[in-house]
């Protein structure tokens, strides 16, 4: 079903009732699986993700090759999609290009934040399972991995939080389009968007992925809205971590 662009100009509301700068409901839990070193469950709207972390553990290979290069821990990321997670019920294997790109993005981003030098010749494994896809899948995976790593007690320099932003549709009379924050699945199909990840509550961008074409003058507004969204996601995850800490003390 095509996106009804008339909704934007008439009511200044999106199809799900949000304004352009509103996040969807975010719900997160920590330590959801007792058998894992670290685990989390996160919902961003109807996108639902489970993440487990194993390690740091001794490298799987022997000799000098085990663990990461330079006597640092190696980070492994695996992402799986449930068969019922999307409407098309497409089965994604390990060779799926999009899944491999997502794994590489997470591995690269967390390699710069985790203090891997504290765990030489070891491996940190991040396993993400997508239960439901409704937009912002990469952003939800990053946020779920962050709190699962916190649960595992693996030291990192700061949070890594992510959000999506898009350029709204324009009519012939519009000279400038408004950016939109935190896209759902239907909006991602119809609008050019990017995924941005920032370090903590700062404006330091660690992840920036854009798979669609957009006019250059729109990118700055999209990025600015995405960074502000990341700051709000950070506040929400802070609350989840604090609440978990209070329960653990009890």
If you had to describe this structure to a student in words, what would you say it looks like?
It is found in: Cytoplasm; Nucleus, Nucleolus. Residues 22-155 form the Exoribonuclease phosphorolytic domain. One of its GO terms (biological process) is U4 snRNA 3'-end processing. Helices cover 31% and strands 27% of the residues. With 250 residues, it is an alpha+beta fold. The chain has a single domain (18-249), classed as Ribosomal Protein S5, domain 2 (2-Layer Sandwich), CATH 3.30.230. The protein starts with 5 loop residues before the first helix and ends with a helix. A 5-stranded mixed β-sheet has the order 1-2-3-5-4, covered by helices on one side. Mean pLDDT is 84; it is low at 1-10.
What is the fold's blueprint, element by element?
Blueprint: H1 6-11, E1 26-30, E2 38-44, E3 47-58, E4 74-81, H2 97-111, E5 122-132, H3 137-152, E6 160-167, E7 179-181, H4 185-190, E8 193-199, E9 205-210, H5 216-249
Parallel strand pairs: 4-5
Antiparallel strand pairs: 1-2, 2-3, 3-5, 6-7, 6-8, 8-9
GO molecular function: RNA binding
Domain Exoribonuclease phosphorolytic: 22-155
Protein name: Ribosomal RNA-processing protein 41
**What is the level 1 CATH name?**
Alpha Beta
Any idea what the CATH superfamily is called?
A: GHMP Kinase, N-terminal domain
Main beta sheet:
5 strands, mixed
User: Mind telling me the C-alpha Rg?
Assistant: 19 Å
Elements, N to C (H/E): HEEEEHEHEEHEEH
Q: Structural class given helices, strands, pairing?
A: alpha+beta
Stated plainly, the CATH topology is called Ribosomal Protein S5, domain 2
| CATH architecture title | 2-Layer Sandwich
Estimate the strand proportion. Answer: 25-35%
Number of helices: 5
Q: What spatial form do the alpha-carbon principal axes imply?
A: globular
InterPro entries: ExoRNase_PH_dom1, ExoRNase_PH_dom2_sf, PNPase/RNase_PH_dom_sf, Ribosomal_Su5_D2-typ_SF, RNase_PH
GO biological process, one term: poly(A)-dependent snoRNA 3'-end processing
GO molecular function: RNA binding
Protein name: Ribosomal RNA-processing protein 41
């Amino acid at each position: 079903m095509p996106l009804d662009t008339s909704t934007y100009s008439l009511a200044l509301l999106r199809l799900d009732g949000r304004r352009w700068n509103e996040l969807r409901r975010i719900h997160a839990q920590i330590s959801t699986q007792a058998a894992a070193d670290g685990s989390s469950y996160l919902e961003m709207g109807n996108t639902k993700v489970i993440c487990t972390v194993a390690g740091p553990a001794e490298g799987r290979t022997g000799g000098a090759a085990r663990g990461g290069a330079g006597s640092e821990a190696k980070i492994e990321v695996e992402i799986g999609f449930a068969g019922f997670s999307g409407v098309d019920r497409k089965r994604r294997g390990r060779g799926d290009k999009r899944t491999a790109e997502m794994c590489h993005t997470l591995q690269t981003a967390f390699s710069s934040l985790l203090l891997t030098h504290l765990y030489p010749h070891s491996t940190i494994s991040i396993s993400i399972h997508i239960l439901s896809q409704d937009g912002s899948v990469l952003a939800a995976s990053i946020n779920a991995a962050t709190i699962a790593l916190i649960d595992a007690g693996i030291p990192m320099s700061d949070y890594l939080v992510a959000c999506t932003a898009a350029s709204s549709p324009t009519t012939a009379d519009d000279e400038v389009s408004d950016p939109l924050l935190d896209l759902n699945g239907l909006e991602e199909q119809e609008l050019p968007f990017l995924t941005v990840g920032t370090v903590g509550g700062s404006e330091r961008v660690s992840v920036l992925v854009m798979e669609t074409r957009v006019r250059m003058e729109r990118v700055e507004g999209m990025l600015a809205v995405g960074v502000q969204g990341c700051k709000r996601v950070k506040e929400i995850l802070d609350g989840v971590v604090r609440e978990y800490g209070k329960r653990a003390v009890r």
